[in-house]
Amino acid sequence: MLRSALEKTLKAHGYTTGNLESKVDKAADDGVITLPLKRRAHENVRVLGNNILHDEWRAVDEEEFEAAHEYTRRVLECFYDDPETVKAILIEKGNTVETENEEEPKKEEVETTPLDDSQELGKIPSVNS
Fold first, then answer.
1. Checking CA distances to 127, which of 46, 55, 64, 109 falls within 20 to 30 Å?
2. DSSP letters of 58-124?
3. Can you give the residue ranges of every domain in the chain?
4. What are the pLDDT digits (tens) for 6-24?
C-alpha cells in the first residue's frame, strides 16, 4: 500500500513514464525530493514493496513497516507541504501536473415554469384539477 501511495503521488505530479525506480530518480533529479530521501524511498519503500509483491509470502515486521511508512510520509510531504513551489519546479522541468478543476463545474440549467395565481407553493395539485 505504501509503495502504491508513493507511485500514485509521483504520477499525479507528472512522473508518468518508466518504472517506480525511474520516477523516484527523476523526482530527485528535479530537486523535489532530496538525494538521501531518494535512497530511502528506494530501500525502504520501493524494494520492500517489490519484495512483498514478487517474492514468496512473508510477514513484514514492524520495523520494516515503520521505516516504509516514515519515508513514504516524508516523500508526500515534499510534494504537498508547499504545492506552489513544487508546481513551479515541475513546470520548469516540463512535467504536467494534475490539478483540480479551478473553475466551478457548470450547473445544468433546468427549465422551470413560474407558478400562476391558481397554484400555491408546496401544495400538490389534485388529480382532478
1. 109
2. -PPPHHHHHHHHHHHHHHHHHHHSSHHHHHHHHHHTT--------SPPPPPP-------TT--TTPP
3. 2-92
4. 999 999 999 999 999 999 9
